[in-house]
Amino acid sequence: MMIDDAMNGLRSVLDNATQRTADAIGNSRSYVERARLRAKLNEAYRLLGMAEYEASINGVSSMEQINGLIGRITDLRAAMAEINRGIQHGGKPQGAFCPNCGRELNSSESFCPGCGAKLG
């Protein structure tokens, strides 16, 4: 009977360790994906700035390119917000994130300190 109790206790410890390891791996993948999305978002912003600058200097409208980049930025920001919502810490959802720029927020903020978007 003592051996059964010890085995059950050991199983419980191992199950708990397995779950924590799986959670940590899932969070790590989410952080890597968020970093990858952030790099793509930064590149899209850079290209948008270049397109705006070129249009201004050359007097040539490149609205098709600019609108395409704006659409890409919108999609990337949505993907970033989704990743942020999925990241877990200790089995509990991480703090709130700005739906506009993805910055982590304090619960008391009415406006995002990163982009100024109205929250709530």
Task: Describe what is shown at a glance.
This protein has 120 residues and is mainly alpha-helical. Helices cover 68% and strands 3% of the residues. The termini are far apart.
Notes on the protein architecture:
- This protein has one domain (2-93).
- It starts with a helix and ends in a 27-residue tail after the last strand.
- The model is unreliable at 88-94 (pLDDT under 50).
- By secondary structure, it is mainly alpha-helical.
- It has two helices and two strands.
- It is elongated.
- The chain has helices at residues 2-58, 63-86, and strands at 88-89, 92-93.
- It has a two-stranded antiparallel sheet.
What percent strand? Answer: under 5%
Helix percent reads 55-70%
What distance separates the N and C termini? 57 Å
Work out the count of structural domains.
Answer: 1
Low-pLDDT residue spans = 88-94
Strand order within the widest beta sheet: 1-2
Please compute the radius of gyration using only Cα atoms. 22 Å
Question: What general form does the structure show?
Answer: elongated
Q: Main sheet, how many strands, which sense, barrel? A: 2 strands, antiparallel
Give the rounded overall mean pLDDT. Answer: 81
Helix-strand topology string: HHEE
Number of E-type strands? 2
> Treating each run of at least 4 consecutive H or I residues as one helix, how many helices?
2
- Structural class from helices and strands? mainly alpha
